[in-house]
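anyone seen this seq b4? input:
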Amino acid sequence: MNPKPHTPDSDFSANAETWLQWAEQTYAGARVLFNNGNPFLWFPAAFLGHQALEKFLKAALVKQGRSAVKGDVWGHKLVDLASELTKTGFNFPLGFVDDLQTFSDFFEDLRNPHPAKKVQELGSMKGVLIDYLVKVLRPAIKQDS
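predicted toks r here
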């Protein structure tokens, strides 16, 4: 059986597998940039890292029957999305939410031109941090709902 082809107006708001695929692709891009050794690439790496984490969280919530639409699973705040995921019974390790906030801070600093305050903490070790965060989030998506 061939899957239905995607059209420009396809609705992926309730498709956890699509959210997961996009999360994995975005995460792969962030990892390449973090591991490149070029400090100028850490800014886009952090931005992509935030987007990847947001997509992993949304994939996990969609897997639990939610929809990525305004009024349900929406927004860019990783801590808020994680809070919604804990309501489904998923438990995060101690300090995990603080680590998510690190990437939210980078996202806020880097998404529009303005004096950046949080990016002084940015470095290649944030690539190690995102690896850890993704490792924790994947089981939330893979678990049966």
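The chain has one domain: 16-142. The chain has a mean pLDDT of 85. kinda curious what u guys think
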